[in-house]
Amino acid sequence: MRCAALLAISACSDSRSALQHALRQPTLSGSDVIISRVMADPSLVPDDRGEWIELANLGSDSTDLRGWQLQSARDPGFTIARSLVVPPGETVMLGRNGDSTVNGGVHVDLVYTGIVLGNSGDWVVLRDATGVTADSVEWDVPPTGSPIDHRSDRSVKPTTRPAPATAPASSVGPPVPNAESAATTTPTLRPRATSTQPLPSPRELIVRVLDVGQGDAILIRNGGSTVLVDGGPTPYALGDHLDALGLNGSTIDAVILTHAHADHYQGLRELFASRRHITVRYFWENQDPSPNVTLQKLRDSIASRVRAGSLTYRDTDDPCVNGQPICTVTLKGGARLHIMRPDPDGHGANNRSPAIKLVGPDSASFTMWMAGDAEAEDIGWFTRAGYRGSPGMRVDVLKADHHGSCNGVTDLYLDLLKPSLVVASLAAANDYGHMHSQAKAMYSRHGVPWYRTDQNGTITLRSPGEPGSRYTVSVERGGKNMPGPSDRRSSSPECER
Ligand SMILES: [Zn+2]
User: Fold this and answer.
1) Of 138, 203, 370, 437, which residue has the fewest beta carbons closer than 10 angstroms?
2) How remote is the CA of residue 215 from the centroid of ligand 1, in Å?
3) Sign of CA pseudo-dihedral 50, 51, 56, 62
């Protein structure tokens, strides 16, 4: 029997209570201003009067938005030039028109210019005063007459802010239900008295494919559990994300290094920098011998934490230490992570990457497959190892194997995974020709669009985790299926067959 959930891990480990404790430690902290709702397509009043963007402070500290910026796909954007303080647990409303008698009855705290919200595909990004992205939201076709609920979900409650008593004097015709009035529905977030309170939506799953250059680093958060798959090519690239996401001083419950290449492990060294005060509870890797000095330094850091009793070190070849090929970890919000043994005889480090299947709290609405830099040999092994039967290979999102290399995808692989989206992690300037045109052609033949970190920045996937919900994708810039400056056709014989 394969390891299932926390209890199964405990069966293979003497650290049952430690892991249960680890996966129940909430880690979100500090100031956290996000885009909570966006009215992109009002119906009671024209767009140039009725569009608005609501921001919410999920953190524990007041935040002054002076100098913060909003930008959309096709517009110059807007910088908040004056002081605009958002107390913890509160929201502010930014609108194109500040007159509630003509804007659909919305109380606007600040009028913005330079942004027109598209009704056929657009995105909005919120950046802090230093230019670091705080949040973003993307849509294809927005709802008409009601806002896009990006992050308000169950963390909000109706405000006491009064609605207009009557229809605007300028309105014509019969009274219209004030469906668009943000005043009647403006959410107030439950205040977070301390930084150790749980995430506002305990089942929400957030996957960030971090823009770290040529490499992989994928951060997963669910109900207070935090998991990192690979760490990217440099400590400073991952360090920037650790800073921006408020992970210093936090606990990362599980780290999975897919294989012994620098573009996956170098950034992980930053987790062990003493100034960051980060606790890592579990660390998986294939533990293959490597001549690489910097990998040895990472392994020395791991060994030191193991000796101190704070870290459990696991081998992806025996991920639950019970001789079984699959180990399943359940996160606090109900998401599950299946860690699957790589090809034991894989040639080269890439073909020693395990497969990882992430299953959202609502498995029908979000699943994702990640397999490091697995090439055709390792991929073929996944298809024969029984993984298509259990845990099943069908997923919603595929992390492109090997940065969109032609040797990281096969027709059979896509036939089994049937993803609706591919996300690739790579640098715009890379020496490998990634993404290879053969890989892009294969994705296209299978009808699968892609986002890529070199062109789209960090890619964020969110699943509310509730039955019937859908996952959403937001990117920092650009659209789907973009080309990159290094893309070329590979002349590798294995891709020319
Ligand atoms: Zn790589």
Assistant:
1) 437
2) 5
3) negative
